[in-house]
Records
---
Amino acid sequence: MPPDDAARTARVAFDRLLESEAPALRPLLPPGFADAAERYVGLLLEANRQLNLTRVVEPEAIARLHLLDAVAALPLIDAAGPRRALDLGTGGGVPGLLLALARSSVAWTLVDSVGKKVEAVRSFVEQLGISNVIARAERAEALGRGDLRETQDLVTARACASLPVLAEYALPMVRPGGSLLAWKGPITEAELAAGAAASRLLGGGAPEVHPTGLSALGDHRFVLVPKVAITPGRYPRRPGEPTRHPMA
């Protein structure tokens, strides 16, 4: 199916999901969101012919696993009230670019370590005329020791890493009073405990698990980690170290 046709079909499927599964989310979406999201999906699928940006390419799956999965976080994001937010491991821009479309008052930084993916996201931002997004091709460990340290009200991440590894990537960039919001599937008590231990060392609080409340998303859930204190200067460790040797 041509990208534009697939994008239109995904939009129709997303509208059905909102009506049947998530009517409370519809009032949270700004005017024009559906038009912009449809255009973004078309651009994403077109670019995906050359780049490995997403494995989700069927319209029904795009509606559920990209569009609905992203905006399902809006109640938690609105409760946090961020002015500056960063999407870590953004890939082709999910969920960060969709969240930027939904919340234009937030200044979003979309980060990925793969330069070609970031170039694609920059192209999407330009073609969509989005003014509240910048994209950066850097490793999280470098940003956490650089100009973004302790600057973000919110860091989002989907399918990025286990919770203790993600905590070390993200929490150094979060200001005290901000939070990390992770998209997760099934999460074990062992991963939660390890994430909690790592969070304590990094200036974070106890992780909170929030179900999506949407049957269409199955066992997806959100894990919210508050930042309660400044991260000690020794964290994050050198690039690659958090993955090779998780803190807990």
---
Amino acid sequence: MRVRSFYGFKFIPPVLVFWAGCAVEKGDLKPFAPLPESFDSRKNSGTEAKLKLGRMLYFDPRLSAGGAVSCNTCHPLDRYGVDGEPVSTGHRGLKGNRNAPTVYNAAGHLAQFWDGRAPDVEEQAKGPILNPVEMAMPNEQAVVRVLKAIPEYGALFAEAFPGEKDPVTFDNVARAIGAFERKLRTPSRWDRYLEGQDAALSAAEKAGFQVFTRTGCASCHSGPLLGGNLYQKLGIVHPWPDDADMGVFMVSGKEADKMVFKVPSLRNVAETAPYFHNGKVATLPEAVRKMAFYQLGKVLTNDEVEAIILWLRTLTGELPSTYIRPPRLPGLDSARGSE
């Protein structure tokens, strides 16, 4: 928020004066919840051995055809899980057609990818490895051959998947990476506020939250992840100006799914530009304005945009620095870090 001075007096934008004068009501907080303690899966337990293996596989570029692209290339964990590009660069410099969303807290979404075509992070992990413009491995068997040629990986898979006759499989690659990603959580000041620490947010930040809710943003961005829990048409009130990508329709073929996308989470949104499925919106103020206009039919003032963004910044969480430290990769002479 910019506080402007006028002949020695401080001038606070009227929108913030109005909302700051109103306490946040319990009803306003009802659609929200703190970040869960975990995103664990009953089908894929996160044992220490599996997490260790998953971390290595996440960082290992040998899962790509050219040996240069890893999961961390497009989803760098020290940069809030995004590469900052409209679309990512993959094998041989090829470009994808959708923005790479953050992997942080993604395991809590109802599905994966912008069109929801993968039900969970385990299934999602398979996609980029075999995608010809991303990691470009020709097939599952090629991935397994690469890993079996690295003796240390054999022992790591056996430890992570005990009792299996042949544990080095493509499915187990996905399970290990998925287990690792399920621990990628970023609790923030917003969580502390929801848990009862009123001082975790300033009066201006609370006012920004009220502008957010009164504008109607919470109709899609609610729950513990403030999104990620439903699908929505892009361009409800006014047609979205770019319909080159029709979203879920491209998977389902159903007319009702045209321009429908999974609603992104607002967690860490201030750190994950550019925005939307094609990454064509570069700044957060522009993204806020577009959502208000195309989804809600509202034209926000500069002060309202600033107020909302002030609150959105409270959703920026803490990166798990120890957990995301690059590991030493099996079979490589040079260490990429320490475990």
---
Amino acid sequence: MDNNPNNSQQVRILLVDDDQIILESLGTFLELEGYQITKAGSAAKAMDCLQAGWYHLVITDVCMPSGGGMDLLRFVKSHHSDTVVILVTAYGSIELAVEAIKQGAYDYLTKPIIDDDVRLSVQRALQQQHLMAENRRLRLAIGRRDAFEQIVSHDYRMAKVFELIDAVADSRSTVLISGESGTGKSLIARSIHMRSPRRDKPFVEVSCGALSETLLESELFGHVRGAFTNALADRQGKFQAADGGTIFLDEIASASPQLQTKLLRVLQQRQFEPVGSNQTLTSDVRIIVATNRDLRGEVEAGRFRQDLLYRINVVTIELPPIRQRLGDIPLLAEHFLARFLAGTEKKILGFSTEAMDRLVRHNWPGNIRELENCIERGVMLCRTGLIDVADLPETVTANAPQADLPPSVNLQLKQILQQAERQAILSAIQAHHGNRRAAASALGINRATLYKKMGRLGLLP
């Protein structure tokens, strides 16, 4: 819908007044001004109209027999935050006007209504509405950009992950993120939340493997006073805290059979009972789960419910370990170096060739988390302008064979990186059907840089 206030043919206004004469006269005036008008004789009728359709502007009387304009104002602000409200009353009051503005009304008019005053107030209110919609659009665009800022990769496998995140973000379907420990599952879950319509609502993270069965159940669903020892007061659970937003359940395979049953019900019905209570609660929450285990193998071993697996496995995002993303290791190392140098007085320019060679060849069983800790150590121990082999942990400097290196294991570091970069570019171009602008955007570079890289790697005709 066009939200431009200068295009009155597209502007929808909801008029609310129990006085039929005022409703008709004001409606006729605004229709002559070119606006699309809907009339409601009560606050309840107005709420029905708002539930059925979207309006740029609501003009409502304050004093009506069944529910007043202030109640309607609170309803609009709660459920239709982009809609602007103008209040009208026959009883001018400074106190009421101040209260109306505090509650979120744009303007406050008194009867008898003067045409010029209405015209000017509506025009200004619609300009305000347009600015609100534009700011919301910009915040969403910034949020979508920021959601990927912490995910550092040029690897073609991660480009496919980014595409999946974009594809599922707008839905409320359950997402299963699988990958080894330390691959960034929590970061991916937060990115899905930040690129979804729920981004302004809570993102709540729970590690199912960090708590005992009783404590985990209480953590998720809450409890009432006296439910168990030391339950001295009622406590809200994470599902209630995440209402309207997203809950991320990490290490889902660690959940007990009893808890798996309760989780299945929450997934199916969005209903649950706090520990020790018979009261059924509901929660509008998007559920993302993660695991570092093979859930199908867990099902075959009888440790995980098959029906729960089917319920959570609507969309699966598989994160590759960094030993399969050789080109990302230098990129991540530089990223962590910049982060740990921030706020310090150290002057470290980068890594020695030998140090970077050891980083690329290491197996990284702890994945990104292990690499991050390694670089933090290097920054603390480095006494020169470059992080060298001596600044790295012994597990890295031992130079254990890289399990997933390509057959050309004797290639120099520069050649390994060029191969990874070439593969990433080819995969991005193929994924976007030859559209180089889109491929450059997916790779996090501009089109000119993409052309330079393609020329250097012999990918241009």
---
Amino acid sequence: MLKYLIGSVLVIGLSLGPLAAQSSDSIRAAQEALKAKGFDPGPADGVDGPITRGAVRAYQKQQNLNADGRLGAQTLDSLGVKEAPPKTQYKSAGTKVKNSYSEGGKDIGQGSKEMGHDVKHGEVVEGAKDFGKGVGHGAAAIGKGTGHAAVEAAKGTKNAVTPDKDKDKK
């Protein structure tokens, strides 16, 4: 019984070895890309530690991706490390629109809240300024996310309709 257990563990370990190496290479490439984009992931050591996850989370937030700190297909594609399949790129476009509209709505809501406070205290002009700032910041967030989404949708469309050059050679 012990022989089978040890044999199974050995087979699983050897099977996962190449995956771990590939994963480490992807993490290292992502760390280098993050550093090049101004996010500090710590040393480019191929280890997905807390500093790297923090840098990934900050990058994801800036790019209107789900800020979960994980190096998933959308994030690796956005970093230019590994191109995601078209379906993932379309999903990323939708995520970016959703997140930017959410952020934009919050900014507009904050401007409205500040306007209400100002008007309540008789400062109508200041209230109008605060509301305008909220709308401006909200519209900027929505526009930025929509722009990022358009880029992802275009990449997905291009990759869906452009034949894979490697497949044509076979």
